[in-house]
Amino acid sequence: MSINYSLVSKPAELQQILDLQQANLPQNLSPEQQATQGFVTLQHNFELLQRMHEAYPSMIALQQNDLAGYCLAMSREFEVDFPILEPMFSMMEEKKYKGKVITDYHYFHCGQICVSEKYRAQGVFDALYLAFQKEYAPKFELLVTYVSRKNPRSIKAHLRVGFEIAHEEIKEDGAGWLLVAWDFAK
Is 29 exposed, middle or buried (0-12, 13-18, 19+ CB in 10 A)? Predict the structure, then answer.
């Protein structure tokens, strides 16, 4: 059966996103699963996801009614909802991508991307981002997101799709974040 890519269109799909997100949070995965399969960092609630969806619907991958994956659309107005990321958002006011300060672009965030374990290594990650690009490239110049340095699978996948490293923050313990950007004009 084929997988269909579309924008979220009903509340039940938002709940499916939350369920898949919950299953892929670090606290619900073994260290080995985190290292080999990846993980998601932020946890949303239904109300926040609904508000994000009302501004810009997220992209989902469905095989019939089974959620294969999601890619959350997050406009700049939702940065205040994630105080843990505030230092990263502030950093974007100084960091340049292709000679221009990131906040000078008409950009938005991938609030998170996740593929269900049974659909991994089937092209769902790439297809989600390509569907996302097709939907939002006419409205935005740049898509940015943060990827944990502890998540090599996600880093590799983002670079494969077309993201480029705009900034890298490395902590003394080797942890940290990559700010990656995808120029939709490409």
Answer: middle
